[in-house]
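We now fix the convention by which a protein and its fold are recorded. The integers have meaning only within a learned vocabulary of local backbone shapes. The record below shows the convention in full.
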Amino acid sequence: MAVVAIIPARYGSTRLPGKPLARIGGKPMIQHVYESTAKAKGLDRVLVATDDRRVEETVRGFGGEVLMTAKHHASGTDRLAEVARKIKADWFVNVQGDLPFIQSDTIMRAVRPVGTPIFDEAEWRDPNIVKVLTDRKGFALYFSRSPIPYVRNGVVDLNGNKLMRGSKRRLWGSRHIGLYVYRRDFLLKFARLRPTALEQIESLEQLRALAYGHRIFVAIADERSVEVDTPEDLAKAENYLKQRGT
């Protein structure tokens, strides 16, 4: 079964314009994402889907594969669907273009959206970090930029552990990593669904699937990759690269 990884790369980011071409360690971010993704075993093909010729030229310049898409797409998944109509594959992996250091192991075991524990309260409250809640079987209940669940009283964490007074290591929630795997038939169906109010309010495309009654399975992974959404995140990514020594 053919598995294709697609990296949506929109040039006109509102929080960080020109984000795919922002340089980290001397290389454009889209190159970091592409090279990290290409290390994952089990992928038959990796390509970038973009709406901008500057991104296209950059990807071709470092030897990557790229396809041009329309500019009007409401989300990265809609952009992914346009590519899925043009190429043949059974599964499509959506790797967000703002994850320059995504681990290949995470992609290899992904075949589903991924969440990681949040122990830092500042991260839990950061609207740039997407949170996810799941049911007992691992299916998503909701995704939000807000700190969910609401903590009415602080006697337990999300593992159900009772917290001692003064305890600093609390499981506040789970962070959603921008990595999805779609069956081709569902991806094309998803792109035909009208965006919902919740999706537009939170600016989270996965809420469209939940609003229409579709289920999303969430796997827990040990992924600490830097996500770049703002100029401050870009500085963090540069520091991360220096500390890693490469």
